[in-house]
Design brief:
Largest sheet: none
Radius of gyration: 17 Å
Structural class: mainly alpha
Number of domains: 1
Number of helices: 11
Length: 243
């Protein structure tokens, strides 16, 4: 049982609340806050698996309202392509130098943010080909660097869906991605029992943050949501370089 009054736990709980708010409001971005912070506090092995557990936990109370707005066909195509591309990204990781790839990924994310910030949108109907490409890139980057989020966020933000549908689809997609990643960690015995106990102790904090973020979402305008999403993507791009 972790010491609930220890500074490390109190810091982790505070970060979990903030990350939960971000996830509850935007549908993504919690891992960007939790993974580096938890890795610094508890080490990378515990930090990553702890983040995956809390990512799943925070999403569960959000799903009942989200599923009504989910396009399951598109989610299925995204996940199918991502599953195929994850091993390719992981293999690539073992064949190349990581530093140039981190710069390349950050540059691509920032270029996508600049395109969205310019006001560009795709106004046609969603087609299977770009959906499969987005899922494939997401899976490739997840296997390569653990950054599954930016391609999917760009894919939805670039479309003409309402922010409510964007948020619902992001929330749902990342539940499946996080569960799959967590299952892989468990299968490889990378999740220790004490990490599970720590996750249970932090779960109320991240759920409280998620519920607060969900309550704040209806108060924000579509413009504010899109601006915040772009800020989160920029933070991911910069974080890939300095973490």
């Amino acid at each position: 049982m972790p010491d609930l009054l220890a500074p490390s736990f109190l810091i982790a709980a505070s970060i979990a609340v903030i990350a939960g708010m971000v996830r509850g409001f935007s549908g993504f971005g919690a891992a960007m806050l939790m993974t580096p912070a938890f890795s610094a506090l508890y080490g990378p092995g515990i930090g990553v698996s702890l983040c995956l557990m809390l990512e799943v936990v925070v999403a569960l109370p959000l799903l009942p309202r989200a599923v009504a707005h989910v396009d399951w066909r598109r989610i299925g195509l995204l996940l199918m392509a991502a599953a195929v591309a994850v091993p390719i990204g992981n293999f690539t990781l073992t064949q190349i130098e990581p530093e140039p790839m981190r710069w390349a990924i950050s540059a691509i994310v920032l270029a996508a943010v600049a395109l969205l910030a310019s006001g560009w949108r795709y106004h046609g109907k969603p087609r299977p080909a770009p959906t499969l490409v987005a899922g494939g890139i997401s899976g490739f980057l997840n296997g390569l660097s653990g950054m599954a989020g930016p391609p999917i966020a760009f894919y939805y933000l670039a479309g003409k869906d309402s922010v409510e549908r964007v948020r619902a689809n992001l929330t749902t997609y990342f539940v499946f991605v996080d569960v799959a990643a967590l299952a892989a960690f468990v299968a490889r015995d990378l999740v220790r029992p004490d990490t599970g106990i720590l996750g249970l102790c932090l779960a109320p904090a991240v759920v409280a943050g998620g519920m607060l973020g969900e309550r704040l979402f209806p108060l924000a305008s579509e413009g504010f949501y899109r601006r915040l999403a772009l800020v989160l993507l920029v933070a991911v791009a910069i974080g890939a370089l300095i973490l």
